Amino acid sequence: MKKISILIPCYNEIENVELMAMAVTNVIQEALSQYDYEIVFIDNCSTDGTRDKLEEICAKDKKIKAILNVTNFGQFNSPFYGMCQTTGDCTITLCCDFQDPVEMIPTLVEEWEKGHKVVSCIKIASKESGLIYFLRTCYYKLIKGMSSVRMIEHFTGFGLYDKTFISVLKELDDPVPFLRGIVAEYGSGFNMIEVEYTQAKRRAGKTHNNFYSLYDAAMLSITSYTKVGLRLATFLGFICSAISLIIAFIYLILKLTNWYGFQAGYAPLIIGVFVIGSIQLFFIGLLGEYILNINTRVIHRPLVVEEKRLNFDEK
Questions:
Q1: Is the pTM for the entire model greater than 0.90?
Q2: Side-chain half-sphere exposure of 292, counting CA atoms within 13 A
Q3: Rounded CA gap, 95 and 253, in Å?
Q4: For position 208, what pLDDT does the model report?
Q5: Residue 216 pLDDT
Q6: What DSSP string runs through the chain?
Q7: Is 279 within 8 Å of 236 (Cβ atoms)?
Q8: CA 164 distance to own-chain centroid
Q9: Strands 90-93 and 155-162
Q10: For residues 315 and 312, what is the distance between their CA atoms, to the nearest angstrom?
Q11: Span of 43-47, 145-149, 198-202 with lowest mean pLDDT
Q12: Which of 7-11, 50-54, 67-71, 299-303 has the lowest mean pLDDT?
């Protein structure tokens, strides 16, 4: 009997975890009864009682497992680590806030049985803020244009992954894994197919995405999968240097040919200092992001440190 693993990352989702466990269990038992299954929650050090609720749920149903992290390891490390701990023939990842439709699980399994070892779910619409969706679209277009890898637009990680692809993830040994980029880079070799869906609103609780988390995601994708930032800094620096040198020669000639009559004033000096200074500061910051990425990889801390596992000794 084939086994399906459902991975559900969570952080402060006390209002959703129990309902999510029930919803996934019902879908599998009703539509996929011919499969064995496990539901794996990985909690990123919740502080609202989610961990206690997970212990209650796991005590009632041995098919439900949980990994409790000792601290918050971020929005990328925790789900990636959880995927590597699943034991099924395929793994399906879902958000705990019901924005990823649970009812799509049978569709994903059907595509998997057709031979698609990676099934990526693509948002074609969202019931979230229109402005946020527009900004996400702009971000995906930007990354897609800058990256040497064919990035997948509006792909958040929701989808199905065969155990052969999970084995690849385990071998990567990446301390800062960016699943969206990894799937885009290697997915075509696993007969990947894209399935469209409409993202629902969060069922309960507050979103944990803020400007910093979105910025972190953007910078990780840019520094991991693009060279454009550094190349742009090189080219723009060369162009600005050339322009500055030309202007300097022009001013020198004008001054030498009209020593007493030519008065440039402070305007060119002030404009030059502020324009060139702002360009330098911008690219110093961008260079810092690349260095931060390198530093994280060199330190190579573990993806996740576990505090406790629940029901992993159950067969």
A1: no
A2: 11
A3: 66
A4: 56
A5: 63
A6: --EEEEEEEESS-TTTHHHHHHHHHHHHHHH-TTSEEEEEEEE---SSSHHHHHHHHHHH-TTEEEEEESS--HHHHHHHHHHHH--SSEEEE--TTS-S-GGGHHHHHHHHHTT-SEEEEEEEEESS-HHHHHHHHHHHHHHHHH-SS-PPTTEEEEEEEEHHHHHHHHHH--SS--HHHHHHHHGGGGT-EEEEEEEPPPSSS-----HHHHHHHHHHHHHHH--HHHHHHHHHHHHHHHHHHHHHHHHHHHHHHSTTT----SHHHHHHHHHHHHHHHHHHHHHHHHHHHHHHHHH---S--EEEEESTT--
A7: yes
A8: 21
A9: antiparallel
A10: 8
A11: 145-149
A12: 299-303
Q: Which two tokens stand for residue 260?
A: 């007493």
Alpha carbon distance 261, 255 (integer Å): 8
Confidence of residue 127 (pLDDT cuts 50, 70, 90): low
Whole-angstrom distance between the N-terminal and C-terminal Cα of the chain?
A: 13
**Average pLDDT, rounded, for the chain:** 82
Identify the pLDDT of residue 33: 93
